[in-house]
Amino acid sequence: MIESPGPVIVDIGNLLNINFDFQLRWYGLLIGLGFLISLLIIYLLIKSKTNENQRQNMLDLLFWVFLGGILGARAWFVILRFDYFIQNPSEILAIWHGGQSIQGGFIGGLVAGLIFYYLNNADEKPNEFLNRYEVCDLIALVLPIAQAIGRFGNFFNIEAFGKPTNLPWGIFVPASKRPIEHLGNATFHPVFFYEAFYLLIVAVFLFWLYSKKKDLVFSVLSHNIKINDGTILCSYLILYSFGRIIFEFMRTDSLMIGPFAAAHVISFITIACASFFIIKLQKKKQET
Description:
It is a single chain. With about 290 residues, the chain is mainly alpha-helical. The chain has a domain at about 10-210. The chain is about 60% helix and about 10% strand. It contains nine helices and eight strands. The strands form four sheets. Strands 1-2 form a two-stranded antiparallel ribbon. Strands 3-4 form a two-stranded antiparallel ribbon. Strands 5-6 form a two-stranded antiparallel sheet.
């Protein structure tokens, strides 16, 4: 049995013996750590093949994508649990308590990135900005790594766990956090660990694809698919969504859209859109 030490690393107010409500939490620390590691990986990948302006603009873009991702992730979570937050409006901005949706985060980050490129007229400045599809591929490479790190925040917050289990790696969940229908069970599947492991496998596969970019050709249904700019992003979206569909079946806290889990609805839509976009990229490449 695995037991979480709790969400708080240190309570600054108690540590300094002052009346100041500020806590350093594992959830926020891990999200920040995931962002910094992603930033470092992307910088190392582009360092040798970009100029100083391109690197600086890439770092600026990543900051806005990260900020948009945080806002989008929280906004989508709040929308899906609107009945709770309308009664507890003070909790809307309390992201340190947990409650982020990666699917909303992706939409928020994408919108922020597109606005950044539009405001800077980036497509007309190839010597200052990387191609938007290449940027998307770079971000897709590090997203599963950042997500895997962030998933450990669920462990400290004791959330996003699965159904009851007696397996030795089951996570202990205190009665106050157990689903009503499972109050008699003490240990549950650590679905966040399963997803983190899956995301790291996805990351390894995507880096392999990236290393073979523009050289590797897949044959699918008698059609050759080349790894062009944008294909890495689509591959990430398909692979992550596929895994999310599976893991969502294991969870007990799914957010719902009508009778369906919201993660399932968004995942199926994402797979369809990403598959369509891969086909579109291939046709566009053939035309050029």
